[in-house]
């Protein structure tokens, strides 16, 4: 079936170091992929989305590359900031008539000084 | 501006009572979703809808009903609330289509406590 896997439940790193949060997916149709960020006591908000033309999306210093060969959409940032501490979800929407959204379990990112 | 509005934002209910959570969207989206979020479980889909008059079961529908009387409104109903339903509930709206990569938009959430 269709699913999203985020292997890390918690990632802790020091400010200034690079960030990489893993996301792999399983899908019967070529999907749209999304990254959401959720700060404490707030709603999930869209951070990035995959494009239909293979452009690499970027926002707030974060970027992600959709690799169809490895079914991955990892989230990366070159230098972590304290304000990046949040819960990050990878999500998938199928391109067919099925309108389900599949979310990973989320990765809690903690950035320390 | 696109928006999803949930009400109430906070609710305290008694065990066995009826609770209705409401969601309104002004985005003209066909699809709407109800999730609950608990520590250690991420976002879990309860019910969703493709359009007015339709409701579909998600992954954890037991103990919940949903109603979509119009394009704009999607309600989640707990007929007999239990303490295990204490959680934060999020509503979202979104589009479908093979060439539309627009992402679902979330409401601000409803914090429900069942005592």
Q: In a few lines, what is going on in this structure?
A:
With 113 residues, chain A is mainly β.
Write the layout of secondary structure elements.
The complex is a heterodimer of chains A (113) and B (115).
Chain A: E1 3-5, E2 10-14, E3 19-21, E4 24-26, E5 32-38, E6 45-49, E7 58-59, E8 62-64, E9 75-77, E10 86-93, E11 101-103, E12 107-112
Chain B: E1 4-7, E2 10-13, E3 19-25, E4 31-38, E5 42-49, E6 56-57, E7 65-67, E8 75-78, E9 87-94, E10 105-106, E11 110-114
Parallel strand pairs in B: 2-11
Antiparallel strand pairs in B: 1-3, 3-8, 4-5, 4-9, 5-6, 7-8, 9-10, 9-11
Properties at a glance:
heterodimer, A: 113 residues, mainly beta, Immunoglobulin-like, six-stranded mixed β-sheet, four-stranded antiparallel β-sheet, 12 strands, 0% helix, B: 115 residues, seven-stranded mixed β-sheet, 48% strand
Note down, in words, how this protein is organized.
The complex is a heterodimer of chains A (113) and B (115). Chain A is mostly beta strands. Chain A is built from no helices and twelve strands. Chain A has strands spanning 3-5, 10-14, 19-21, 24-26, 32-38, 45-49, 58-59, 62-64, 75-77, 86-93, 101-103, 107-112. In chain A, strands 2, 5, 6, 10, 11 and 12 form a six-stranded mixed sheet that branches. In chain A, strands 3-9-8-7 form a four-stranded antiparallel sheet, with no helix packed on it. In chain B, a hairpin with a 7-residue loop joins strand 7 and strand 8. Chain B has a single domain, classed as Immunoglobulins (Immunoglobulin-like, Sandwich), CATH 2.60.40.10.
């Amino acid at each position: 079936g269709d699913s999203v896997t985020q292997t890390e439940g918690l990632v802790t790193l020091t400010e200034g170091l690079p960030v990489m949060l893993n996301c792999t997916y399983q899908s019967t149709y070529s999907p749209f992929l999304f990254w959401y960020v959720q700060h404490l006591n707030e709603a999930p908000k869209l951070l990035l989305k995959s494009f239909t033309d293979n452009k690499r999306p970027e926002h707030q210093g974060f970027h992600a590359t959709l690799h169809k060969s490895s079914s991955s959409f990892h989230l990366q940032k070159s230098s972590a900031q304290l304000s990046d501490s949040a819960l990050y979800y990878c999500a998938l929407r199928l391109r067919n008539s099925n309108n389900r959204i599949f979310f990973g379990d989320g990765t809690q990112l903690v950035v320390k000084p | 501006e696109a928006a999803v509005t949930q009400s109430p934002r906070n609710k305290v209910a008694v065990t066995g009572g009826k609770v209705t959570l409401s969601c309104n969207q002004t985005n003209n989206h066909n699809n709407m979703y109800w999730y609950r979020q608990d520590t250690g479980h991420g976002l879990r889909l309860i019910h969703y809808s493709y359009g007015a008059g339709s409701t579909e079961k998600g992954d954890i529908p037991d103990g919940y009903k949903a109603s979509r009387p119009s394009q704009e409104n999607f309600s989640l109903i707990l007929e007999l609330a239990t303490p295990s339903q204490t959680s934060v509930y999020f509503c979202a709206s979104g589009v479908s289509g093979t060439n539309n990569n627009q992402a679902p938009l979330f409401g601000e959430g409803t914090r429900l406590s069942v005592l």
